[in-house]
Design a protein that fits this description.
Elements (H helix, E strand, L loop, with lengths): L1 E5 L20 E5 L7 H8 L4 E4 L8 H4 L7 E4 L9 H6 L3 E4 L5 H17 L2 H9 L15 E5 L3 H12 L3 E5 L5 H7 L2 E2 L2 H7 L2 E4 L13 H6 L5 E4 L8 H9 L4 E4 L19 E3 L8 H19 L6 E3 L5
Parallel strand pairs: 1-2, 1-3, 3-4, 4-5, 6-7, 6-9, 7-8, 9-10, 10-11, 11-12
Antiparallel strand pairs: 5-13
Protein name: D-2-hydroxyacid dehydrogenase family protein
GO molecular function: NAD binding; oxidoreductase activity, acting on the CH-OH group of donors, NAD or NADP as acceptor
Keywords: NAD, Oxidoreductase
Amino acid sequence: MLRIAVLDDYQRVARTLADWESLGADCEVEVFDRNLASEDEAAAALAPFDILCLMRERMPLPGSLMERLPRLKLVVVTGSRVRTIDMEKAVARGITVCHTRPGESQAATPELAWGLILAAYRHIPEEHARVRAGGWQETLGTTLHGRTLGLLGLGKLGGRMVPVAKAFGMEVIAWSQNLGPERAAEAGARLVEKDELFETADIVSVHLVLGERTRGIVGAREIALMKQDALLVNTSRGPLVDEEALLAALTAGRIRAALDVYDREPLPANYPLRTAPNVVLSPHLGYVTADAYREFYPDTVEAILAWRAGAPIRVLAAPPAA
């Protein structure tokens, strides 16, 4: 019997969105709707499985965990970019790693960023809760028209922020380590220096890939440069922002924030950001759409079938052929 674990199915939809029975009667599929929070918990729960199906980067797969999974032969991860799997260790242990198509995150994540911006600027979460509780309006909102959007990163996702900002009547400025003035102008933004972006923008939206050069790129110094009551939006990766410095600024009422990503995910129940003032929070929803999942799960089944047939597809890592 080939045992397959489908991990982190928070919405409990994996079984309904793909034909798992097509894998054959000799396959047993178990779906986990919770996050396995520690390596010890993951090792104990997953040791009996031959195949792991990961939802993006919700559960890391370091080499130390792989060593505790003696039956593991195949990993299928949704999306095409993953930095939480030890690929070298996978190859060394004879484990194949495959991925699905990327889904629609290039559209979905920037759309969520605008949802967070509007929620913060018009105090929608607070007013929604107030109406539910029997109250009525108490806040003063802010328009986007005439404001300046600062994009930290102007790639595929950051670039999609520009036409929406223009539709709202905003000026758009941008900076990243490799961005040039011509590329910025082509995307409809004006290239500025990093300090100028933080000093000038009413809204700073982060759209960078997490790496050694970008980890902590929004630190205490950058946050201190921001305007009083400016809004910091992060829908990319939590560690791009110094969370301790951000929490201090929020508590002091220096800036506001709208966050979809965090240093630790899922957020522990007592995590300080859960009760911080001046912040709108969402639980890493950027890529979480029905159409994306309708691609992820059938692609996962397809990848398992291809691997079983001896011709794995969309391979990220594979042991040498025998």
